[in-house]
Design brief:
This protein is α+β, with helices and mostly antiparallel strands. It has a domain at about 25-105 and about 135-165: Electron Transport, Fmn-binding Protein, Chain A (Pnp Oxidase, Chain A, Roll). The protein has helices at about 30-35, 75-80, 110-125, 125-135, 155-160, and strands at about 5, 40-45, 50-55, 60, 65-70, 85-90, 95-105, 135-150, 160-165. Strands 1, 2, 3, 4, 5, 6, 7, 8 and 9 form a nine-stranded antiparallel β-sheet that branches. A hairpin with a 2-residue loop joins strand 4 and strand 5. The termini are close together.
């Protein structure tokens, strides 16, 4: 993956934005660490009628994208079928990483096996038989934009970062 470009997020109502456009920005490695280590992730999708849907999922950051699985009849799967956009967020809000991207259903079972191997290392168990028996879906969310916010930074406003891919 080519390193995404870091910049300040659009924050029109915050008057105290730093003068130096790059001072305090977080490196992409900071975001990757949190994306890889998070146990639970929030996924935001949009229902066919436009209402939001927010749910927890388990997943992995793998091959420069977020991967997760869900049953084909879940609200998440139905929402993704209707609107090919979603947001993923790590579990800790004080060091949040939010990824906006386009989910892609992965039908190739050979890739499911690779996904399950990485997933099982993180969570334990054996995901592959469950995926196959349930007719589950595997999704890859390719990032378009990501945001990071670090409450522990010396200057919270300076540390707010947007990455564009």
């Amino acid at each position: 993956m080519i390193e995404p470009k870091a910049s300040r997020p659009y924050w029109p109502d915050f008057a105290e934005m730093p003068k130096d456009p790059e001072k305090g920005l977080k490196p992409w490695s900071w975001a990757l660490e949190r994306l890889e280590k998070s146990h639970n992730y929030w996924i935001a999708t949009t229902r066919p009628d436009g209402r939001p849907h927010l749910m927890l999922v388990w997943g992995i950051w793998w091959q420069d994208a977020f991967w997760f699985s869900t049953g084909p009849n879940t609200r998440k799967a139905k929402n993704i079928a209707a609107h090919l956009h979603c947001s993923i967020a790590t579990e800790l809000a004080d060091e949040a990483v939010i990824v906006e991207g386009k989910p892609q259903e992965i039908p190739e079972r050979s890739i499911w096996k690779q996904f399950a191997t990485v997933y099982n290392k993180k969570y334990g168990g054996d995901l592959e038989p469950l995926l196959i028996s349930s007719g589950g879906n595997v999704y890859k969310v390719t990032p378009r934009t990501a945001f990071g916010q670090d409450e522990h930074a010396a200057n919270f406003a300076e540390s707010a970062t947007r990455w564009r891919f």
